[in-house]
Amino acid sequence: MADIGHITPREISDEMKESYLDYAMSVIVARALPDVRDGLKPVHRRILYTMHEMGLAANAKFRKSAAIVGDCLGKLHPHGDMAVYDAMVRLAQNFSLRYPLVQGQGNFGSIDNDPPAAQRYTEARLTKIAGELLRDIEKETVPFTPNYDATREEPTVLPAAIPNLLLNGALGIAVGMATNIPPHHLGEIVDALHLLIKNPDATNDDLAEIVRGPDFPTGGIIFNEQEIRQAYASGRGAILMRGVAEIVERKGANQVIVSEIPYQVNKAALITHIAELVRDKKIEGIRDIRDESDKEGMRIAIDLKADAYPQKVLNSLYKFTDLEKNFNVNMLALVDGIQPQVLSLKQMLEEYLKHRRTVVTRRTQFDLTRTKERIHILEGLAKALDRIDAVIETIKKSADRDAAHANLKKKFGFSDIQATAILEMRLQTLAGLERRKIDDELKEKQKIARELEALLKDQKKILALVGTELGALRENYRGERRTKIVKHAAREIAAEDIIPEEEMIIVLTRGGYIKRIKTEAYRVQKRGGKGVTGIETKEEDVVEHFLTANTHANLLFFTSTGKVFQTKAYEIPEGSRVSKGKAIFNFLSIKADERIMSIVAVGKGPASGNGSRQPGFLVMVTERGMIKKVASDAFDNVRRNGMVAITLKGGDTLRGVSVTSGKDELLLVTAAGQAIRFRESDIRPMGRGASGVKAMRLKKDDLIRGMNVITAEGGEAKAELLVAFDQGFAKKTPIPEYKRQKRGGSGIKTGKITPKNGRIVGTAIIKEEAEIIAISQKGQVIRTRLADVPTLGRATQGVRIMRQNPGDRIASFTIL
Asked: Helix H segments across 199-266?
């Protein structure tokens, strides 16, 4: 039986661990991560070296890509041909690399992710800047290693006269680690290297003053200098990118024109995504999208609807699409070809300078060796010419070439190389001028040798030479930065940025159903009409609150228990004119036994009919005549489950809340037609938990139905108080007819209460031409001009503005 050798038992877990680690290191070192010195992965290095060996320089004729791929596969990279071709294609794409290393002829793919043509159709050669990566490779500047079958040698790294890793960046996924290095502008990187040569102690911040940020091949805009510097200092970070978009004004409808998109974004996929968002109504206002890109540049035309808000549409594009995205920097590269390490900007530049110093040193040593070899030959030729007759005589007497070679060495002391050079010397060298050329060349070579020796002895001179060569690169490859940098951080696209600012009507029923609708839903009618259906209420449900608010306003909901809740106006679902709305319990954490007693819009737009002033105070009045003033900032951060706004006593109910400046006057009106006017300063500011002070002395069955703010800005002479009655009547009375009193009185008459006009349901101060929208308990709505409502005295019953169905009453109204 044949000896099968010794078998050693081994734990499978140990075997798996070692095998996996071997595989992981193979992926890390030999496949996925770039070398910090030349910025290349093995496959890219082999492609470029193969093209160099094939003589495909920037001034050579193009060769078929299939020939290049085949050569690379056969000699250096024994993997799939498509893997090599795809890698070569990326090196040729000007939207993938800031400085392409391969010049392609034919279809090499597009930014729309179109595939390249087959390798048998396309042709390629090296670009001029790729030649800089390979410059001096023949001068033993880099180490070589046997290829996969040991039939030839390949470079372990390229000389890299350009800092390719930072110029073109890198993207790679290894085992347990990944790299994502952005591309940069050559001029900035070279200037940073110059600074580091002059001042090795320069900090990352010093370098970041020069390297302002990535420079992507697709252009775009990047934000936040601070985050960019942080990424450079630590080697990790996120950089916000945005495409370049412009709003173009046109007759009829505007356009958004996108001329640049963020790096690594697929243009076709971006357009498809926008179309899907429009279809799903996540972005509104877009009528059509067209890709108008051509060889002149990128152009995505987005046609907007006539009523669209262009900036809101653009903000929506930034928020929901890849027109804005982060580039997650992870500057991981191989140091010394074997050690994966996350590097700062300074460390990357230092590693590159160290590599270039080694390359220049090896190149200088190579040149010195060749120069000394030439000097040795020239010294032999000069010595031979000095004794030319004896040399010729010796050669003539020799039996053959080998004998002549040996005799020259023996008789004159020439070396092997010198003797060979003498035997190969032409007769024309004997001419006087030719002899002089040899002497001149000898002197020149001796001078060069002295300079090279001096260079090798001084590392500072070598580093200075590296800087000089980098400066020449900067001049040869000039170009403007493509990516614009904005120093400050980009403002986050918030919900407000994609919601158009417009006046909306908020409707809330006693049963707790709420909706918002556009004011245009109600057309203007003449006074005294029946109106239109404004809401389909459930049986026995009635409309209770009706107000206008800007979509960006904060809505404060005050409940019967004295608590306050908050939400944005745009968070209230938009409904149609007749829809019943959504249950408010979906938006606010209100208990089942709580009712919304007042809604105030704070911030932007009308606030309970009191205008759009930024509030200083919120004044609250209860149905039984208690009043309280609280600083508005007490409600800046209302918790999701609400907070206490007022303490109610004896079964009292909060009736209304108004926004004031602290210097205004208040005009309160009761259901029975009494009114009182007093200064806001009569009420001192209180805490949220206070119950307030007496505002007005009421009769037994009377309740507060309206609180109005007479602003300190003036205009009282022209202002009027609108009083609405529950049977559809209304009237206006000049404000000066209401004399100022002290808080706590019983007030004066403001309306004649009869069975015909009913009790007062609400009031508002009117200063200019406006419209009233009134809604009944059963959901009938009328919109009419207030100019049609006559100005009457205080003790009058008003005129009919709305004709209701039997048993229906006016529930609420709002002023536009």
From this structure: 204-208, 225-234
In whole angstroms, how large is the CA radius of gyration of the chain? 43
b/e string for 267-281 if b means 16 or more Cβ within 10 A?
beebbebbeebbeee
The Cα-based distances of 495 to 244, 302, 499, 570 in angstroms read: 21, 21, 7, 9
Say how far apart CA 267 and CA 278 lie, in whole Å: 17
Domain(s) labelled CATH 3.30.1360.40 in the chain stretch across: 244-322
How far CA 277 is from CA of 271, 286, 320, 568, 570, in Å, comes to 10, 10, 8, 23, 19
Supply the pLDDT for residue 444: 94
Q: Where in the chain is the domain with CATH 2.120.10.90?
A: 501-815
Give the per-residue pLDDT at 120: 95
Residue 506 pairs in a beta bridge with 516, 547
By the 10 Å C-beta count (0-12 exposed, 13-18 middle, 19+ buried), 481 is classed as middle
For domain 501-815, the CATH superfamily is DNA gyrase/topoisomerase IV, subunit A, C-terminal (2.120.10.90)
Q: Give the tokens for residue 174.
A: 């290894």
The pTM (predicted TM-score) of the whole model is: 0.71
Contact 650, 692 (CB under 8 A): no
Cα distance between residue 662 and residue 482, in whole Å: 54
Count Cβ neighbours within 10 Å for each residue of 635-674 and write b for 16 or more, e otherwise.
Answer: beebeeebeebbbbeeebbbbbbbbbbeebbbbbbbbbbb
Find out whether 207 and 346 touch, Cβ atoms under 8 Å: yes
Q: What angle do CA 305, 306, 312 make, to 5 degrees?
A: 65
The number of beta carbons lying within 10 Å of the beta carbon of residue 356 is 25
Place of tokens 């508002």: 764
Q: Do the bridges between strand 617-622 and strand 674-679 make them parallel or antiparallel, or are there none, so unpaired? A: unpaired
- Sorted by sequence, the CB contacts under 8 Å of residue 297 that are 6+ apart come out as 259
Q: Which of 169-183, 241-255, 373-387, 421-435 has the lowest mean pLDDT?
A: 421-435
Within the chain, what is the greatest distance between any pair of CA atoms? 151
How many Cα atoms are found within 13 Å in the side-chain-facing hemisphere of 632? 20
- Retrieve residue 447's tokens: 């001078």
Residues of the chain with CATH 1.10.268.10: 351-476
Delimit the CATH 3.90.199.10 region(s) of the chain: 40-159
State which amino acid sits at residue 427: L
pLDDT tens across 723-772, in order?
999 888 999 899 889 998 999 999 999 988 998 988 998 888 887 777 88
The secondary element (H helix, E strand) that includes residue 106 is none
Domain 351-476 belongs to what architecture? Answer: Orthogonal Bundle (1.10)
Q: Verify whether residue 352 is a known catalytic residue.
A: no
**Catalytic residue, candidates 20, 23, 85, 121:** 121
pLDDT at 605: 44
* Residues in the chain, overall count: 816
**Cα 422 from chain centre:** 72
273 pLDDT band, cuts 50/70/90, is very high
Q: Is the pLDDT reported for residue 269 higher than 80?
A: yes
Token pair of 297, please? Answer: 């540049």
The answer to whether the CB of 568 falls within 8 A of the CB of 602 is no
- 402: how many CB neighbours lie within 10 A of its CB? 9
What tokens appear for 808 in the block? Answer: 């229906």
* CATH 3.30.420.40 is the classification of domain 244-322: no
Q: Which CATH superfamily is domain 40-159 in?
A: Topoisomerase II, domain 5 (3.90.199.10)
Sorted by sequence, the CB contacts under 8 Å of residue 526 that are 6+ apart come out as 784, 788
Give the pLDDT confidence score for residue 612 in this predicted structure: 40
pLDDT of residue 143: 95
- Specify the 3-state DSSP secondary structure of 661: coil
Q: Cβ atoms within 10 A of the Cβ of 395, count? A: 16
| H-run or E-run covering 111 | none
How are beta strands 339-342 and 332-335 bridged, if at all?
antiparallel
